Amino acid sequence: MSSEQxxxxxxRQICAVAAGHYLTREAACEAYRQIxxxxxxxxxxxxxxxxxxxxxxxxxxxSGAWDALDRxxxxxxxxxxxxxxxxxxxxxxxxxxxxxxxTPASLIAAACGLxxxxxxxxxxxxxxxxxxxxxxxxIDLNAPLSKAEECxxxxxxxxxxxxxxxxxxxxxxxxxxxxxxxxxxxxxLTCPCEQTRHIVIGAYSPEVCDQLIAVLxxxxxxxxxxxxxxxxxxxxxxxxxEFSLAGPTRVVELKNGxxxxxxxxxxxxxxxxxxxxxxxxxxTAHDNARRxxxxxxxxxxxxxxxxxxxxxxxxxxxxxxxxxxxxxxxxAKAALAAGKALEKLEQLITIQGSQDTDxxxxx
Length: 363
Known about the structure:
Order of helices and strands: HHHHEHEHHEHHHEHEEEHHHHH
Strand content: 5-15%
Oligomer: single chain
Strand order of the largest sheet: 3-2-1-4-5-6-7
Largest sheet: 7 strands, mixed
Distance between the termini: 49 Å
Number of helices: 16
Shape: globular
Structural class: alpha/beta
CATH class of the largest domain: Alpha Beta
Number of strands: 7
CATH topology of the largest domain: Pyrimidine Nucleoside Phosphorylase, Chain A, domain 2
Helix content: 40-55%
Mean pLDDT: 93
Low-confidence stretches: none
CATH superfamily of the largest domain: Nucleoside phosphorylase/phosphoribosyltransferase catalytic domain
């Protein structure tokens, strides 16, 4: 625990941030270091996190927070490959809740030949996070990271739960927090796989998409997409942290140090727009997991399948395996229909799986 002097200094920083003061990258790194390493009382930690997100963190501050998370709390895996390794993830906390998408999209993209080191966590504000769904499908969240490393080496896919690679700080915080913080922004930016150079990272608002891409450029990511999906007929500020099948998607793209912002629609993926109800989240994590499993197992001519494939197709396009979003989606649908995505799930379970799997979900 910190000394009285350190407690007071941190308290003054909370008040300064709440009053609108901005921190340098180094100062933000130090503040988040103290939170990550639990050097401040929980009341002070929560106060700082809320003051910071309520005021709105700058790119420089988020880069400092990422520095702290990467240096003090992120365990790493490494694989021997010269191929591109990609991640597909979302920040969560989005106003529009959809069936889990980044998880099946990762499996489908891997089935097309893209190496995917997918990270995720349990739910924060929704019905189910990636960890919740994959645990139901048979993944052991407590398996050593060496298993993820082995799976990525052998099968080109692995799952890296935040609960495993962010042990001391973020995982502790995420278990107890039920509000959005800067960790929702920088958590998905973590790089537990040393070879990850590309990322598709959806966010809960257009402004956060802009910040994510700016931070990714600062930390040296080669290529990235930050989609904010919208719904036809709804307020454009209310959206989802992935490419939308129910309306247009605002995209911020990073390639070779250059940033571009544009808008796409389902038609750009060769798909038709559908009502939000077709891809909305179920009421329970088990139901969301069942929908994912059924899609992988053969229900590929459905709105859910199109939703998953368009997001996989975007990753394929970003990584150079497809020339356009439409061609990437076509590749994804072909792999899904051929059962290759289901095969990736089974390979994942074989190496990273639990012995106590719900067979009714695994079939």
